[in-house]
Amino acid sequence: MLPNLRVLLPVLCLGLLAAGGCVPLPVPGPGLPLVDGRSVREGPVLVDPTLMGSLEVGTVREDRLDSGRLRLVIPLRNLGGERLELLVKVVFKDAKGFVIPGDETPRTYVAVPRGTVHHTVTSFRSLAERFEVEIERYAP
To answer: How far is CA 131 from CA 51, 74, 76, 97, 98, in A?
Structure first.
């Protein structure tokens, strides 16, 4: 029985090390009800950790256009004195949270001087119900 333990122990250790490196992905919430009864299905906003303390992302405003497409207004507030240079990408998802193929914005350069900038994006398709925003620091 001892030889089996010598083989099993390294395998268990490798398994624990591999599992420790896994990070769970954020799951979209059920949405927030608004006064008019609509519901905002906010997706997660993923921000580059190097921006913590420098950038505040406000509540994302969601509007439905006459064409049925989803328009988002993302408030980005610079908390420091230096101009922030960001790349912002939005991935639109259907009502079940699945990515809609081809319905994502490219990484867009957004400069945020002192104060707040409102970055606006619109989905390409009317299927969009949810979204995920990715914000990272621009590195030339």
So the answer is: 21, 12, 17, 8, 10
Q: Say yes or no to pLDDT of 18 above 50.
A: no
How big is the CA angle at 58 (ends 100 and 123), to the nearest 5 degrees?
A: 20
The Cα–Cα gap between 72 and 90 comes to 9
Answer for the pair 88, 47: CB distance below 8 angstroms, yes or no: no
The type of residue at 57 is V
Residue 140's pLDDT is what?
83
CATH number for the domain whose boundaries are 31-137: 2.60.40.3230
Helix (H, G, I), strand (E, B) or coil at 50: helix
The neighbouring-strand residues paired with 99 are: 93
